[in-house]
Amino acid sequence: MTAKIMTLLGTRPEGIKMAPVVKEIERTDNLISIFVNTAQHREMIDQVLDLFQLVPEYDLNVMRPKQRLEELTMRLFQGITPILEKEKPDMVLVHGDTTTTFVGAYAAFLQQIPVGHIEAGLRTNHMYSPFPEELNRQLVGRLATYHFAVTEANKQNLLKENVAEKNIAVVGNTVIDALLEITSRHYQFEGELASIIHSTKKTILVTTHRRENIDELKHVYRAIQRIVEQHEDVQVVFPVHKNPLIRQKVMREFVDMKQIYLIEPLDYEEFLHVLKHCYMVITDSGGIQEEAPALGKPVLVARDTTERPEGIDAGTSKVVGTSEEKIVALCEQLLRDEAAYNEMANAPNPFGDGYSAKQIVHTIQSLAEETRAIYQRNTDEVIYR
């Protein structure tokens, strides 16, 4: 029996992590792929789709300058619902914790279409950390029928929330599938970045973008200043997020700082190859906590909480918060203590082995008849409110 699977995404992280799934669905004989790009992040998602040679069946183009989350939510509902009504998919796949994810899951729920949640079960259990992602993923956890968890710990989070065990599959993270594909390709840096990356200095890759961190970032930036002042053989590559508040703080803190290279956001391919060549990472991103260990790069997490404690437990990452002293101390240790560095760099990556998309699609195939039966039963009984 053939099943129609609708995949929804709209941001760069979603595009990266869903690309292996979309491609696997497209090459599976008994599955029909309906790929919807909401373009929540227009320019950044386009780069990813080009890289993976993916063309959506629908492009909602919802991004607007300075758009509030309320406006974005409204546009997404208005764009997604007519597609669901027209296509009548057997399952809707959403990823992670974005506004596209939440609205897509809720819109499908209102049509009584089963939802599959990829990267399910991540939790900090702090509603505003990260904001709005933590509540988005908790809400999707209630709306979804099927849950594709990255780790056993994620599964346990879902079980604590009374999700049926039969509806949870631990599959690893598709970001590792994408990373291994892209970093296996030959890549040549150009311009100033080529001379930076190929210098003999140890490169610290820095990224910051979390809304809840904005007022505390000055402590992170001062720690970075101290590190480069104390180490002539260290340089920092800092792709600066497009958020105007972040950019303003970064530019103010790092005026004319030698050894610190403030650059525009990198496309996914270039970023991965910078990551591949760097010495270590300081970040408040979630995805990099999974990507860096696959390339043997220690990660210092500049947040007070992380929804990826598996990296902490495995030894690939350490939470440093926004404490200037803690960041400096741990950087000093990793720069001076080879054994401490190797312990983190060589720790096994708990987030995946590169076969997550295949596992997800295999599970979907086994669910095809069940999801079709659920949809048929629900559409026969649906009451519009």
From TrEMBL:
EC number(s) per entry: 5.1.3.14
Record GO terms (molecular function): UDP-N-acetylglucosamine 2-epimerase activity
InterPro entries linked to this entry: UDP_GlcNAc_Epimerase_2_dom (IPR003331), WecB-like (IPR029767)
Matches recorded under Pfam families: Epimerase_2
Glycoprotein as UniProt keyword: no
Keyword Metal-binding attributed: no
Swiss-Prot/TrEMBL keywords: Isomerase
Domain UDP-N-acetylglucosamine 2-epimerase: 23-364
Family assignment from sequence similarity: Belongs to the UDP-N-acetylglucosamine 2-epimerase family.
NCBIfam families: wecB
Protein name, entry field: UDP-N-acetylglucosamine 2-epimerase (non-hydrolyzing)
Taxonomic placement: Bacteria, Bacillati, Bacillota, Bacilli, Bacillales
